Amino acid sequence: MKCNEAVKHAAGLALDDLDIEVRRDLEGHVASCAACRGVAERERRLVEELKSAPAAETSAARRERVAEAMDAAYREAAERAVLAPRTSRRWWIGAAAAVVLAALAVPLLMSGGNLKVEKGTGWVLRAGAKDQVALNPGDAVRPGDLVITKGVIHLVGPGRSKISINANSEVMYDISAGAPLLRMREGAVYGEVRSTELTIVVPSKGRLTIREGTFEAKLDVVLGYPGNPEKKRNLKVQVGKGNAVLEGPRGSLKVGEGQAATVTESGQVVDEPPSTGPLAPWRK
Amino acid sequence: MKDDSVTRDEADLVRRCARGDGAAYRELVGRLEKPLLTFIQKYVGEPNLAEDLFQETFVRVVRSLGDFRPDASITTWIFTIARNLCLDHLKAKRRHREVSIDAGSGGEGGNVIDFREALRTLGPGPGAQSEAREQEAKLRRAIGELGGPKREALILRAFSGLSYQEIARITEAPVGTVKFRVHEAVQELARKLAPAAGKDQTGTGS
């Protein structure tokens, strides 16, 4: 190894992140070269001192304060019923959307913002609760609640909108943007949307927005946890009646009546051949 | 903080946080308190501001949990949020390119990285106060002169103990680039801090 190479790799020696061969060559060189040995030793001492510099001190009071701030943020997001229009690059679109959403939010607010279980049973993890409880017909699903299903469950919402959640789904209900929003983590949802706007978002940032129509949104997602490495996060949407807008980080598409589209894992929105069968057959 | 993949334990913690579980919040903050607060302190150089940014980071975590994708660790994701907050702050204050050499870390005009603790041991000895001050100034100057990417890579590696893979995700740079930046930062610091007579890094041997 030449001196210029040795100098280049000396920091790696100090940081202990060299390949074995490079490390061996470098150590051989510095053993016989006083100049490079000096460089390596100086960088080693510097790294040692940097690593031994005191870290931030921990504090139970700080942890408590931060946790309280987090809790407040959670409650604010879950319970806030004031309008919070989505970010738009064109402010006037955002302003127009705000007006529309404000009008649409009226029936939502008048209903108290809750969904009600019409048929089926499941589980619900209430906002802020530690344990999930049974969800039965007549029960309310409130903003911030996470619905966990084993079988199909049917809900009614603002303006007599209907939402069916397929078996083995996890869907969180939210109204922090002034209109109903479902955060789908797993499963599929069927909706008949009336007198409001419904938005569905998924972890891959796919977003479906529909007003006055019927649809099925299916999330092909298996979270990539150890032991379950498959990762599919495509949000597939089939529209029955009305129009929907499907958005992803890399595009958006208007999905018309009878049409289907997908937000892919990479955020692209692509057309899909529409299903020829009934919409969301699992809900029957 | 070596593996950049999400663990089942982390995934459960994220789920609990997404449900508004206060105990999960405390657990999450406790796990990252030391490395994350250290990072923020070193990055912005103002302890009080660092406390605010630390708290704001976790508030944003709560607001963004719906966007969390479990293809990277929660650590990486939260450090990314914190880094963006720090960058926003530094941009707002135009400090990211205007590093004050003279101000201490506790003041409004503080330097970007507080190396004073390190200087206590890097300095020439307790008896040589003026020399120590000079050395301290040199080190601060050297740190201030490091390019932003090198500086943040060094902080994340040396002070917060993150892996190169984690830093690569946070800074959106290739792993090799991150490694190169850290090496360059160490070399540059060592070169700048070397006594004038000892600037012999290029070597003269074989």
Description of the molecule:
The complex is a heterodimer of chains A (284) and B (206). Chain A is α+β, with helices and mostly antiparallel strands and 284 residues long. Helices cover 30% and strands 32% of the residues of chain A. Chain A has helices spanning 3-15, 20-32, 34-52, 60-79, 91-110; strands spanning 115-119, 122-125, 133-135, 140-141, 146-148, 153-156, 162-165, 170-174, 181-201, 207-221, 233-239, 243-248, 251-255, 260-263, 269-272. In chain A, β14 and β15 form a beta hairpin. In chain A, α1 (3-15) crosses α2 (20-32) and α1 (3-15) packs parallel to α3 (34-52). Helix content of chain B is 66%, strand content 0%. Chain B has helices at 8-18, 22-44, 47-64, 74-93, 116-122, 129-145, 148-159, 164-171, 175-193. The longest helix of chain B is centred in the first third of the chain and has 23 residues, at 22-44. Chain B starts with 7 loop residues before the first helix and ends in a 13-residue tail after the last helix. Chains A and B meet through α1, α3 and α4 of A and α1, α2, α3, α5 and α7 of B.
Quick description:
The complex is a heterodimer of chains A (284) and B (206). With 284 residues, chain A is an alpha+beta fold.
